[in-house]
Each structure stands twice: as structure tokens, then as C-alpha cells.
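Field notebook, page 333. I keep forgetting to write these up properly, so this time I am using the form the group agreed on. The chain and the ligand, 2-O-methyl-1,6-di-O-phosphono-D-mannitol, are recorded exactly as supplied. Prediction of the bound pose follows.
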Amino acid sequence: MSTDTIQRPIGEIARTMVSGGRGILAADESVSTMNSRLEGAGVPPTVEQRRAYRAMLVTTPGLSAWISGIILSEDIFTASTGDGKPFPVACVEAGMLAGIKVDTGAKALAGAPDETVTEGLDGLRERLESYAAAGASFTKWRAVIKIGDGLPTPRAIAANAQALARYAALVQEAGLVPIVEPEVLMTGEHSLDRCAAVTETTLRSIFDELTAQGVALEGMVLKPNMVVPGDRCATSSSPAEVASATIRTLRRTVPVAVPGIAFLSGGQGVEMATTHLAEMNGLGPHPWELSFSFGRALVDLALKAWRGEPGLAGDGQQALAERARANAQARAA
Ligand code: 5MM
């Protein structure tokens, strides 16, 4: 299929995902990540609680005012909410697009100790067919780039960029929109400038590969980290410094054909992620929509409020709605 043929429908989906002042909820934690988040909140890590938690999020009244789409993990995408409705159907009926994480995780990269390459390409074409038939409009794949002594290596950046591009090409072939997520981790002592340099190199490599693989930039959404200092950096940076470093990095690397950039929160505090988003939007106008696809920064307070108690689902939903509204407002800054 030529790039021109597939461009229009996926372009419309991509624009819906990032426009209208709304953002994307990342509720696609793998089973192991979800279990540790549940345990952290004092909730038993069972299949039923993983399902009940996501059902609580997806059925939040009025969520579609601030959220355009929800990324689900495969175990949840194929499950049903409490009333027996498949999760993708529940999303769509509530006015939000359904998405699915299709990578199978970051695995040790040969010859590069301490670095990973994200896997999941085997059998992806067939899996995509079934996700599309079940109501998915978009997908997500996350590459993890670590900063450290001599890290990242060019090998790790190249391997992840190529995997992301091959993933994106397959997803567009299936008529779906790929979210391309390269996460430069904020774990470490590195400075803001170092994060900026690594993010710039990573994004440049990814867009080279996306072009090489024939990916239609109009039909994708980029989900990058913000440029922030490491969590153990001796020097802190102001929201204005973070915003200007992030925008400068994106302007150097992200083609204007990409309709939108939806940031991950990456372990920043809930309020800080929102502050940074507002600060960046305040520097506009930008050539792309500047949106959010937060996981923790949207759901942390909801999980704490819910605590696995069916009677507290309303409290959890109120906490999610509050963060979703605040981040949507940050886009209008
Ligand atoms: C919700 O977490 C997503 C899945 O992570 P694992 O596969 O490691 O469990 C993750 O990809 C998420 O979409 C991004 O990291 C953004 O989440 P944050 O919390 O950083 O905004």
C-alpha cells in the first residue's frame, strides 16, 4: 500500500487523538507493572483487581471532555468492563478512541550490557488484524533509552529506532495510527543539557528510520519524554528551562508533518508534569499540537483514592477527572 493511499484515514485518526484540547490516557501497564502499582496502593494484585481498576478509569463520567483515547494493555483490551462490555467498545461508546500497546517489552540488547531493545515484531501483522477487528484505532510501542556512563550507545539507539519504525509501518499498513514512544529515562544524575542532547540524537535517529521505512508522518503521534534533568541531578531546572530545552529539541528534530506530540510523564510529580505542559504550550504557537499521554501523572491519585474498594470507585474517578481536566487546561495555556 502506498503512503498516499493510507495517509488520509489514519491522518484523521491521528488528528482526532491530539486535537480539541484533549489528551490520551496511558492505561497500558504490563501485568507486572500493574501488579506492583496495585501492591503499592495496598490492593491485591489479582486479575480481577487489574480489570476492576481499568473499568473504574474507563467508565469515569464525562472523561471524553478531556481525553481523546485510552491506551490499553492486551490483557485488558480483550477483557470486559463490569457490565460485560468489551473494553474497546466501552471506550468508543464513551466518546474515546481505543488503543492497544503492541510491544512485548524491553529485552536485553545483545552486546550492550544495561541496555534494551523493545521487542514484539514477530507475528505483529496478524495481531494487528485482530486488534483492528476488535475496535482499536491506534497502537503504542515504547522504546527505553537509558542515560549513564557511556550510555546510551549508538547501537541501542539504532536498534530501537529501527524497531519503532518497522512497528509503525506495520501499524499503518493495518489502517491504524502508531504512537511512537521513545522514552529517555529520567533515572540518573545527568543534567538537563545531557537529556537534551540524548533526546535530540534519539529523535533524529527515529525520524531517519521512520522515513526509511516509508511511514506517513501525518498518520502517527509522537510520545516523547520532556527534556528534564535526571532525578538525582544536583542542579534543579525551572519549568521555564525545561520548557525551552524541550521545545528547542523538538523543533530541531520533529518534522511539521507530524500532527501531534503527546508527552509521557516519566515519573515527574503529578503537578510538575502539568506545569511543564502549560509552560511549553505558553511558548506557542507550535507547528504541532502539544498534548499529553500521561500514565502516572493522570492515574496516581485515582489509584490512591480507589484503593481497590468498589465503594470508592467514584472517588477514584473524580481524581482522574480532575487531573484530566487540569492537563487539558494546560494545553490551552
Ligand atoms: C502506563 O505505563 C506504560 C506501560 O509501561 P510497562 O509496559 O513498562 O508496564 C508506559 O509505556 C507508559 O505509556 C509510558 O511510560 C508513559 O507513562 P508515564 O507514567 O511515564 O506517563
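OBSERVATIONS:
- Confidence is low (pLDDT under 50) at residues 1-7.
- Residues 3-331 form a domain with the TIM Barrel fold (CATH 3.20.20.70).
FOLLOW-UP: compare against the apo run.
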